[in-house]
Amino acid sequence: MPARPPILAIVGATGTVGREMLDILASRDYPAGAVRLFASKRSAGSTIAYCDESITVNELTAGALEGVDIALFSAGSEVSRRFAPPAAASGVVVIDNSSAFRMEPEVPLVIPEVNGGILERGDGTGGCIIANPNCSTIILLMALTPIQRAFGIKRIIVSTYQAASGAGAAAMRELSDQSADVLAGRDARPVVFHEPCAFNVFSHNTKVDPATGRNVEEQKMIEETRKIWRDEQVAISTTCIRVPVLRAHAESINVELHRAASEARFRAALTDFPGLTIVDDRGSNDFPTSLKAAGGDDVLVGRIRPDASLPREDRGGETAHFGFDLFAAGDQLRKGAALNAIQIMDLVRQRVTSAV
Amino acid sequence: MPARPPILAIVGATGTVGREMLDILASRDYPAGAVRLFASKRSAGSTIAYCDESITVNELTAGALEGVDIALFSAGSEVSRRFAPPAAASGVVVIDNSSAFRMEPEVPLVIPEVNGGILERGDGTGGCIIANPNCSTIILLMALTPIQRAFGIKRIIVSTYQAASGAGAAAMRELSDQSADVLAGRDARPVVFHEPCAFNVFSHNTKVDPATGRNVEEQKMIEETRKIWRDEQVAISTTCIRVPVLRAHAESINVELHRAASEARFRAALTDFPGLTIVDDRGSNDFPTSLKAAGGDDVLVGRIRPDASLPREDRGGETAHFGFDLFAAGDQLRKGAALNAIQIMDLVRQRVTSAV
Question: Looking at residue B308, what is its pLDDT?
Answer without folding.
Answer: 84
